[in-house]
Amino acid sequence: MLYERSGAKLHAVTRRILQSDAAAEDAVQEAFVRIWRRAGDFDASIASPIAWMATIARHAAIDMTRRGAERVSAASADPAIAETIADPSAGAERLAAGSGLARCLESLETDRRGMVILAYCHGWSRDELAARFDRPVATIKTILRRSLMALRECLGDGP
Fold this sequence. Notes:
This protein is mainly α. The protein is built from ten helices and no strands.
């Protein structure tokens, strides 16, 4: 009964994060397992039941993305994506071929270049980048900001 009433809403939450319906459905299933296990933690004074469940579903989808389940399926479907995930600088070269952006991206340190590409070309969240590069989220934000400033300066758009 809980699934019938909230499954579609939770699927919509997970689908916004994941690229396929199948992955979103897997995340919803994982979310319901977590909801069942954490039912005792629910506090109606903090959030409504659907908001609490949507948060759990969103976290389940993000966790799937971190584990790479979604990236693996996307990589199998498109070799260019697989190459970009394996070597983010390769994706930058394809995206910026023939422009000054490729040259400016190459001027960044490897980790910084990878962070910029994954964040702005592939839509990775700051939390995902922090997990991938094993750094605090605040550090990731600082690195991205400084990297964008360096790119802007390199491209001649001022500080």
